[in-house]
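Researcher: Let's continue the batch. This sequence belongs to Cytochrome-c peroxidase, and it's 392 residues. Same format as the previous ones, please.
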Amino acid sequence: MRKLLYIVLSSVLLTSCHKNEDYVAVDPFAAVKSTFGSNLDMNNLANYANQPVPAYITKFNGANNPITDKGATLGRVLFYDKKLSSNNAISCASCHIQAHAFSDTNVASLGVNGSTERHAMRLVNSRFSIESKFFWDERAASLEAQTTMPIRNHGEMGYSGTNGDEDFSALLTKLNAVDYYKELFQYVYGSSEVTEAKIQNALAQFIRSIQSFDSKYDTGRALAGSDNGPFSNFTAQENQGKNLFLTPPVFDATGNRTGGGLGCVGCHGAPEFDINPISGNNGIIGKISGTGIDVTVTRAPTLRDLVKPDGTTNGPMMHTGVITSLQAAIGHYGTINIAPGNTNLDPKLTPNGFGQQLHLNAQEVNAMIAFLKTLSGNNVYTDVKWSNPFPN
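Model: Same format as before. Here are the structure tokens for Cytochrome-c peroxidase:
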């Protein structure tokens, strides 16, 4: 009996050994490696979740969808993938370009069925703001909601379900058949199924990870301990511009500035330089195309990285792209005309019921330009973790 048991056990062990010799491990990222090569290292993910943030930065949004390295990595792929458009030609990155602080040099970005209705907003530091709504008219209640609205737009990415477009469900079917998405969604969510909510969460994590805190301003702010007083690393002109930015103006009864600074901080709060959520229209009410006025525009990106480190612009400014230089941007606020029909003009621009007249001189304009240039960093334009993972 013992001999028989020994023979059976030996047979089982031998069979098991032979099976192990024939066993080939399945690579859970075979399709990812085949598609992206060394551009994505799933065993050594980039640091998205624990990037250093200066202690003086206190405004945050997105607590309900915290950034993870896994989620942001998937978001990066989605952000650059042209498969998210109906003709496989347009991605999020087509309109939000890293080399331009995730904006566009075109006034209106080109979509699958025409042009966008407003200029593409810069995405830098979108997480560091009190305002949690998105789009120029704040029609998206959150960044998560915003991420798939361009995909669902007929002109932009073409899964609108209108005007002959396929519905968004067709995109989900398409992505569910992509091998690298099966692997990535399984890795991030524990399920390979692609859903809109998962797409939204991953894209939002990637976008919120895009940050810029290596500017001349940040060096000065860290050394000074507050925005008050001159920064030791600033020139006299840059310090004058900072003072003008932070100091409220003094107006007479008819809206003419008689003293003080320019008070830009009233809408763009330092040190994040984000838009105040209660801001109204800034006086620019035109449209990129068509006629009529557009008074619903009250959102704005941070003022950080308005220009590149070399001082050249990251494309036109404002929702219409009508402003093409810092000098023109400052000049717009220098003389505010209350246009007929603009029922949403920010009251901070209409002291005593009149459009503000700042009566800027050349020295003040140049100082403001010098200060705004100190808000630009370097890393956001070149960091690989925010770059296109698809091979050229």
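Researcher: Any comment?
Model: The radius of gyration is 26 Å.
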